[in-house]
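Subject: sequence -> structure tokens, single chain

Hey, anyone have a minute? Need the predicted structure for the following. Not urgent.
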Amino acid sequence: MIRPSATPEFLLDRNEAVPRLVGRHEDFLIVAGLAGTARDLTFLSRDAPHVFALAGTMGAATAMGLGLALARPERRVLVVTGDGELLMNVGTLATVAVMNPPNLAIVCVDNGRYGETGYQKSHTSLGVDLEQMALGAGIRTTRRITRPEEIPEASRLIREGNGTSFVLMRVAPTESPPHKRDLDPTTERHRFRAVLLD
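Reply:
Had a minute. Here:
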């Protein structure tokens, strides 16, 4: 049983921390996970076509990012997903570690909540540590962000790492930016494919 003293703090404001970490979003091909992270990235990029934001595909973001990084080794690929979405397919981290594409970075925006299904507490609010799980899977380069001053180093890491990197960003359980986006998967697929073939 996880002891209450191991329960993490969730303090950062995602509406400030995520844009600071990502910085120039045009530097990446981006796969955004469910709910909050999809809104974070579509709001930040103003629905740019190089951002493929998921809805309803629980557990798919990291696997999609891995495939994209392997298919486009000349591009930096960034997966930005939440703790709930990552928990639904956490075993993918083992495959990522084995393949270890140098152009892939994974950011987990951890608010300790399942934002897609009603904001129930997720396992990470009870002490489950996704950074330790990434390390245990074999991802060699990880960072944990709990304070604003830790963001710049992690921002450099997702751009310059020579091997897959994993960043766990602990944020307060507050809403991401209110942003209505196109949820038609065919439209989104065609827009993103055009960027890949450009």
